[in-house]
Design goal:
The protein contains 9 helices and 16 strands. It has 396 residues and is an alpha/beta fold. It folds into 2 domains: 269 residues, Zn peptidases (Aminopeptidase, 3-Layer(aba) Sandwich); 110 residues, Alpha-Beta Plaits, CATH 3.30.70.360. The strands form 4 sheets. The protein has an 8-stranded mixed sheet with strand order 1-2-4-3-5-16-6-15, with helices on both faces. Strands 10-12-8-13 form a 4-stranded antiparallel sheet, covered by helices on one side. The chain has a two-stranded antiparallel ribbon with strand order 7-14. Helix 3 links the parallel strand 3 and strand 4. It is elongated, with a radius of gyration of 23 Å. It binds zinc ion (2 copies). One zinc ion binds next to loops.
Length: 396
């Protein structure tokens, strides 16, 4: 059963916003036009907001139905694109080579604005905070939003991600861990250069790097409980200049993903040990640096009950499903959940089979029909949570 809430006008308005954002995508922390578009639409809706958060492009809007009384629930949308050149051939394709909305954040913004338009005209028993967050794909925009007090006074937070693994009309709701710990790293290897024919006079960074990459793989296969999920991936390896010169330096970039704290610690300390051992063995200097790590997304039990009830209202029993095993993808929504209870769900958005590529690919696209369920869920979860939280306010 689907609650009819989104009329054709609202749907078309959201779709147009999505397509405009899609045509003009912007990378993390550079969402200047995106932020201006959101501000202009909020202005038209008569919703008050604060601009300039999280380095400049973040927005925090408020719909206060409780006149300063009652609980406060936040809804969050991310808004950055990815450094990918679009190959979908869509009529509203990105006009910017090397930048593309390949993760659906254009849709997230459109739906949050749609929810704002609806919530603004509803009787609310508290306050709703709308967070438009930059830099989800890189730079941990959620953490930057928190530095600017995005969650001040907020009791609970919800978000959703479009997911083309599932058809339109499905919403995944899961308690507990849904996205893993993410620990990106760089490894800089400093050997010493020399003639390709005289390796004994040099320290070959290519051989050191090869040793490292192979040994790192044993961390997951030999150091981690096989029933616990973990990944170590080296996504980039750069060394040398020409075929007959031994490379003095090498640079590796990679990421560690892990589904629980203990596994994470075992891999990170294991990585340090492997590096020390190989540095010693090869007589090279190796520096390991972690950056922009993310905690795991762990859905709070009560927030998950509220998210599930809202999903049942919107798509009925048959539409509410589980994502199954936790994803080893990262999501900076986890930063909000470290402060207050929160729940993140996924909206099914599969286009006709084989019509589009996966998320983070140059052919990614989703079925815009999902806006009907998605926007409805945002509205329902916000309203129902305010009601559920209400009796708790004012009780000491
Ligand atoms: Zn993404
Ligand atoms: Zn995303």
């Amino acid at each position: 059963m689907i609650v009819p809430l989104i009329d054709t006008d609202l749907f078309t308005w959201m779709r147009d916003i999505r397509r405009t954002l899609h045509r003009f995508p912007e990378l993390a922390y550079k969402e200047v036009e995106t932020s201006a578009l959101i501000a202009a639409e909020l202005d038209k809706l008569g919703i008050s907001f604060q601009q300039g958060l999280a380095g400049g492009t973040g927005i925090r809007a408020e719909i206060d139905g409780g006149n300063g009384q009652g609980p406060c629930v936040a809804l969050r949308a991310d808004m950055d694109g990815l450094p990918i050149t679009e190959e979908t051939g869509l009529p509203f394709s990105s006009i910017r080579p090397g930048v593309m909305h390949a993760c659906g954040h254009d849709g997230h913004v459109a739906m949050l604005l749609g929810a704002a338009a609806l919530l603004k005209n509803m009787d609310l028993t508290g306050k709703i905070v709308l967070l438009f967050q930059p830099g989800e794909e890189s730079g941990n925009g959620a953490a930057a939003m928190l530095e600017d007090h995005a969650l001040a006074g907020v009791d609970m937070i919800f978000s959703a991600h479009i997911d083309t693994h599932y058809p339109v009309g499905r919403i995944t709701v899961d308690e507990g861990l849904i996205c893993s710990y993410t620990d990106p790293f760089t490894i800089a290897i400093h050997g010493s250069g020399g003639h390709a024919a005289r390796p004994h006079e040099a320290v070959d960074s290519v051989v050191v790097a090869a040793n490292l990459v192979m040994n790192m793989q044993t961390l997951v296969s030999r150091r981690i409980n096989p029933t616990h999920a973990a990944v170590v991936t080296v996504g980039r390896l750069e060394a040398g200049t020409v075929h007959n010169v031994i490379a003095e330096h090498a640079l590796l970039e990679g990421t560690v993903r892990s589904a629980d704290r203990e596994t994470r610690e075992r891999i990170l300390s294991g990585l340090e040990r492997v590096i020390r051992g190989i540095a010693d063995m090869c007589n090279a200097e190796i520096q390991l640096k972690f950056f922009d790590g993310l905690p795991a997304v762990v859905n709070d039990p009560w927030a998950t009950v509220l998210a599930r009830n809202a999903a049942l209202t919107v798509v009925g029993e048959e539409g509410v499903i589980s994502q199954g095993a936790p994803s080893l993808g990262g999501e900076d929504f986890s930063f909000y959940q470290q402060l207050i209870p929160g729940c993140m769900v996924r909206f099914g958005g599969l286009k006709k089979k084989d019509a589009a590529g996966p998320a983070h690919s140059a052919r990614f696209d989703f079925d815009e029909e999902l806006f009907k369920h998605g926007t409805n869920w945002l509205v329902q979860v916000a309203r129902q949570s305010l009601e559920a939280l209400n009796p708790l306010k004012g009780v000491d």
